[in-house]
Amino acid sequence: VVVCLIAVLALVWSMPDIPKTVKTSELCLPSEIGPLKCGSTVDLLHDYLEREIATKYDEVKRQNQKKQENHLKEVSARLMNIYDKSFWEMKPAAKLTGKEQPDLRKTDSNADMVPIKEWRNGRELYDTKGFMRYGIRYRNGRLVVPVNGTYFIYSNLDFFESCNPSSGLPNVKDINKPIKHGIFKFNIFEGEEEELVSNVQPHTISTNRYYNSYNSYVSSLADLKAGDELSVKVSNISY
After folding, report:
1. How confident is the model over 194-239, as pLDDT tens digits?
2. Domain 93-234, classified CATH 2.60.120.40, yes or no
């Protein structure tokens, strides 16, 4: 409202004399392409005020953004003096290692990919190189993100499949169905699961004719929101 009043007052003070040939239903105002433009009072006034208000709004927005940046710098400097470098190192992080998986549910038997549902977490991580820090939570085989931000996510898995000793071919129902491994995210407010990164490998003939081994590593930077749940999925949990 204040911006509109300022624009109207500026309009009244700076408005040039209207030519005598202009009708009472018309108005002359400064335009974008010339010093003066005459036309319909309503349309011309609307366009002029819209331009002026947009200019003032952009100016106020830039001033507010500059104030926020200066405030952040002041706060950051104050926190650094108090906590030194440890403050900026307190970022959410977690690293889990796998464990024996439960039997596959009937509802997942025909799924293209199934989640890894069991990971060592909590006290189970004491004897491993895993950890959970600064707000990361574990829930039903998923890691829950505590704050918005850009995260580096990764997953490394080893797969083993049995093969037919007579031919070395993988002992699977469909050899044309590849081995898949990926990281997914889910947020209850969005209601849909999204694939963040994945790896696909074809089956190969075993050199020892008894089993095949595969390694799959996926990683990516991901923009995550507070409450996002991360899970790891594979095409065949028995691997």
Report:
1. 999 999 999 998 888 899 999 999 999 999 999 999 999 999 888 8
2. yes
Q: Check: CB of residue 190 under 8 Å from CB of residue 117.
A: no
pLDDT in tens, 144-177: 999 899 999 999 999 999 999 988 999 888 888 8
**pLDDT band at residue 178 under the 50/70/90 scheme:** very high
Q: Where are the domains of the chain?
A: 23-88, 93-234
